Fold this protein.
Amino acid sequence: MAVERKFIKEAVNRVLVKDYVKKETERAGYGGMDIQRTPLGTRVNIVAERPGMVIGRRGATINELTSQLHGRFGIENPQISVEEPNYNPGLNAQIMAIKVAESLERGWHFRRVGHSTTQRVMASGAQGVIVEIAGKLTGQRKRREKFIQGHVKYCGETALTLMDVGYAQCKKKLGVIGCTVRIMKKDAVLPDEVKIFGPGEKEALEAAKKARAQQQAAGVQTVDQVPGQTPAVGSQPSPAPATPTPAATTPAAPQQPHVPSSSGPAPAPGSGARRERKSFTVGGDK
C-alpha cells in the first residue's frame, strides 16, 4: 500500500501545483502547464500568452514562483520555463476559457460572449468548438447555455484525444459562473477518415517529406509544399526571358507618327521615350 499511497500523494501534489500556478499566472494568459521529472530536477513548462508578465522585471516573478514551488510543495530543484503557444492562441482552450470569464466579469452579455468566442475559434482554423456557460446568468435560477459550431465529439476515445478542454470561473454578484471551452484540434484526424493513394503516390509523398526534413535539418528554408512542386516555382522565371513586353511596346511605334502630326512641331531626335509618353497621355484624354 505504500507505493499506491505514494502515487496518490504525487498526483494530488501535481493538481495543487497546477491550481497554484494557474492562479498566479492567470493575468498573463495561462494556457497550460507540464511537469516532467529529470535527473537534474523537476522541469516545469508553463504556456502563457504573455510570457513577460510571468517572468517579471529582471526575473523577480519567476524567481518567487520557483521558491514557492520548492518550499510550499516540496518540488526538488524546480526549473521553470515559459513559452508562448505553438499555434494561434485562439486554438488554446484554456486561454479562450479565461477570456470568456474575463468578458463576463466586464459585464458582457453571455450570448455575445459565446457567439464571439465561437467565431474567433473557428476563424483560427479549428474543426469545431463548444462553449458552455453555466450558472446564474440572468436571474436567480441556474441554467446552462451551449454555443456549438463545426464538428465536435462528446464522448469516447476520440473526444479524449482530439478535443482540447479548458475551464475557468467567473465571479459575479449572483455567484460563480463556470466557463468551459472544448476545441476540436486543427490537425485532428478522425478514425473514419480514409485516404486512398494512387499507384506510387504514397512513396512520392514519403520521399518528399524526407527531403523536406533533410533540408530543414541542414538549415535550408523551403516553401511548405511538396518538393515535386518546386519546379513550378523555378519555372516561373522561364517566361521572364521570353518577355514579349518589348515586342508589345514596339507596335506602339507605328502609332507615334500620328501624335506628332496632330501636335504640329517635330520632336527632337532621340526622344523616343517622350513620344511614347505623349501617345499614352493623348490616348487617355481621348
Observations:
- The CA atoms of residues 101 and 211 lie 46 Å apart.
